[in-house]
Amino acid sequence: MIDLVPLLAGTLAAATPLIFAGMGELVVERTGVINLGVEGMMLIGAIAGFAFCATTGLGPAAGLLAGAVAGMLSALIFAVLALSLAANQAACGLALTIFGVGLSAFVGQHYVSTSLAGLSAMNLLGLQDIPVIGPILFHQNYVVYLSIITFLLIWWILAKTKLGLLLKAVGESPESAHAMGYPVLLIRYGAVLFGGAMAGVGGAFLSTVYTPLWVENMVAGRGWIAIALVVFAAWKPARLMIGAYLFGGVTILQFQAQALGIDIPVEFLAALPYVATIIVLVFISRDRKLLQMNLPASLGKSFIP
């Protein structure tokens, strides 16, 4: 039988890159911009973080910072094309993903045989020894807790602050926000750069902490899942958090099923997380009223002052 304690403990770590990338994309889409380049930004952040740690000998924290910077720089390319030049946002995002796949593969070929030390789990508040709950909640690396803090901050900003209202206003009616004197393009630039930084952190987490080695295309579709989770969550942070943990749980479940030797084809188990995501999205998309109520009105539409 599958042991639930390591399953649930592994779920928190497996969901961490999705939380970072998904929360970043949620903020971007709240301002009316859709960036389909999350997969590419995560790959660029992954190779940047890994290469920086492997070259300098610094720890994962430096790799996460390098990944954030690389993600922001790649998002800046998208912002210039989609915001300043008013190019098609979907096309720019797809181009960014293709660029990220190629660039990470080219740079990463020098680091294929390299591995890092990784990051050990913490004994948070000395509560690791509490039965069941302790190993799940209080025996994780600090990046897992950082993802939870990130979720809380984004939820609070969107729900409780003037900045959150401004982001929503720009996403609903950029013309009205511009008429009131708010710098719509500057706000969208900030959101896109923030989304790039979060995607870069998610990618760097994969390469420097979760599996501290470089494998070509190691993001393996998580960027697309992060975009799908934003729709699944109806642009609400709490729902996105739940969706990320559901996907993380299914991912860990397939590994445990393989380890137990369950007589199911390996290919099916590998596809299980993505199949589960598609099924959930199908059911969510049937509730058109929920999506229409929360969908930013200007999502995907260019704005020229």
Automatic annotation (TrEMBL):
GO terms for molecular function: transmembrane transporter activity. Keywords: Cell membrane, Membrane, Transmembrane, Transmembrane helix. It is a multi-pass membrane protein. CDD domains: TM_PBP1_transp_TpRbsC_like. It comes from the Bacteria. One of its GO terms (cellular component) is plasma membrane. It holds the Pfam family BPD_transp_2. The chain crosses the membrane at residues 6-28, 40-58, 64-83, 90-112, 132-158, 186-206, 218-235, 242-262, 268-285. The keyword Transmembrane applies. It is found in: Cell inner membrane. The keyword Transmembrane helix applies. This is Putative transport protein (ABC superfamily, membrane). It comes from Acinetobacter baylyi (strain ATCC 33305 / BD413 / ADP1).
